[in-house]
Amino acid sequence: MALTLRAAAAAAAGPTRGLRRLFSTSFIPPMNSPAPQAREKAEPSTNLFVSGLSKRTTSEKLQEAFSQFGEVVHARVVTDRVSGYSKGFGFVRYATLEDAGKGIEGMDGKFLDGWVIFAEYARPRQPPPPLENNMSPPYSRY
DNA sequence: AGTGAGCGA
To answer: Which domain holds residue A89?
Structure first.
């Protein structure tokens, strides 16, 4: 009985497979479409995305480490809202673009708390929330 | 999940 049911299910899902090598009209070569959220390096900004962090690295240690190469205005290790544990990446904002550049040169590929970290320009943040009916925007707007 | 690439109240 059960075998019959399984066989029927397999038969229903099995056939018509392996003939789909026809010329699909979607042979669009990957041309350089400037996707806004591409996985490439973002354009220079004062804000850096830092990944590869140790789970024990805090925002304070992040700021300390990056302050060697410029004036750090803000540094944050991203943590889980409920567990409070680090997600292993964070953001560092420098006062100027040249400090940010020096920060990348000085910290990218370096060790921090035993882990090789990666520093790069952060992409622009979330799309602006529609504040039409709501007058409770976040407090921290960096 | 203290699992290892990633783009955040």
So the answer is: 51-119
